[in-house]
Known about the structure:
This protein is α/β, with parallel strands linked by helices. It is built from 13 helices and 14 strands.
Amino acid sequence: MKKKHDDHKTIKVDYSSYYFDVRPFVKLARKLDCWALIIVGARKRGKTYSTLQMALEEKEQIIFCKRTIDDVNLLCSGSTEFDDDLSPYADLNEDMGLNIKPHKIYNGIASFDNDMEDNKYKVGYAFAISAVAKYKGFGGLRRCKYLVFDEFIPAPWERIFSRFEGDSVLDLYVTASRDREERGQDPMLFIALANANDLSNQLFNTLGITDQVADMVNKREEVRQIGRKLVVLVDDSKYGMAADEKKTLIYQDLKDTTWGKVTFSNEFARNDLSCVGFKSIKNMKPRCKVKYKEETWYVYQKEKEFYVCSSHTNHKIKSYNLDNESDQKLFYLKECVTIADAYYKRNAMFQKFRMYDVIIHFKNFYKI
Length: 368
């Protein structure tokens, strides 16, 4: 008999379709009692369109989240004079004969309403994650069945407004979903959509799934249940329409560049996974141990080579607790700089991606 937790292995991305369809994965997430569905990839394949269309067809309201206040203000800034529509419902309005418009409520907060004279109704709300702190008792959110976080992985040139933006969106989710469940309604489903700009992003870090997603990348695994979260990685190069894209001059010229791999194939090409893997610690000496959140890492050294892993040692070695500000600075000065120098000389390995990410990009995680 097939076990419930193996159901995710039976669902595959339908690459024969021109567009990506979110519905099978929403259905699977519900079946597996997952509260979150994370989809990376399907660039220009309609993942946002499909998600919004699903909610409309179900006649369910949504919370549509963008990262910054400017993002939300921009989608509210269409010109009626020139019939400009910058909202995510522009194509749906045309295809479904609707007139859904955003109405700014506050800086970074808006409502979506179908403004047709004979058929007016609330579609949902738009929130900037950077404006969530201004949210106070917005009771209407309990009517929303889905919280959609669009483009949750910023491009390298986009500003990260806070190291805690992942926490902010989850705070919004908890507040809205709790109100629903207290009233006997179905739990809200959190749907996060993005392209493969960076494996190290605030949401993955907050959810604690960075290492598991890195493992999916290495194993070329497309669908995995991680706790009560369902993660889908779409290989854009497998779509039929990619064949036409491969004929374009820009594809032929830039397909093998980092930008090309991210854009055309949805690869996390900006992240170095070559230094992540298993290495024998035989003949290596323990140098120090590091407490990072609930994990304990050990740094081993042999001459100029370093390996960071979870292999325990009984030796008495220097210990750092990264929950403490004093240890953060000390670890950075005495260990990070040395390990980073070895890494750039190809003399450092890490058992897990998170170990590499925190140590090599320490200042992205801690204020030093």
